[in-house]
Amino acid sequence: MPQANKHRIRALLKSIETGDPEPISVVNEAKYIQHNPQTHEGSEGLAALFQRLSKTSPRVNIVRAFEDGDFVFAHTEYDFATRRIGFELFRFEEGQAVEHWDNIQPRLGPNPSGRSMVDGPTEASDHALTETNRSLARSFVETVLIGGAVNRIAEFIPEQGYIEHNPRLTDGRASLMSALEEAEDGQRVIDYHHLHRVVAEGNFVLCVSEGAYAGQHCAFFDLFRAEVGQFVEHWDTTEKISPRSEWKNNNGKF
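User: That's the sequence. What structure does it adopt?
Assistant: Structure tokens below.
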């Protein structure tokens, strides 16, 4: 039986640490589209790049990985001299990865509730509810995060039992509501503008959005865990998007 694509991506990401060239065969480098604006496209083969990186003694931990049709999404932590948390998203075509997006920020925390940015459940369940949970996430982002209807948050987040891994927030719906209502000079501090993609496996859903945080153009990657028709746990990364003049490829962040 062929290995699941999410396991192949786990091996690929781990090879940054080991330098093993074999897992890189999962990538079709001739067709590979790189959406990290800070990465030169085609300037160095992945095998050579990962071999070079492995000599710097990096640490790579793939915390959780999920699969959604032609997409694999992974939640990762890296230590390349500094500790960072990321989400990696790959698109497959004819059995190989041909496109990649990511969103990485410094590891912060634990938050006031004692949560790290990565702890919590790692395996998907309720696979029959994948499409229901995808729709729920899309509605939450479009209605509450983009539309600003914070008064409707109870439709998506329970009053009790909500677990928050954002390093600035605490558990519970009230903390999230307060953060979403915060404004400076009439502008929302957390200001979502556009939802680009929603990928899901079972009770885990990743939303890829664009907007601004404290006035800076940012990408928001939000991972939700659903339970009984609401979201009971949340992880995220927020990354500033550099000005286009500083991009090292022309593929765009999204």
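The mean pLDDT is 94.
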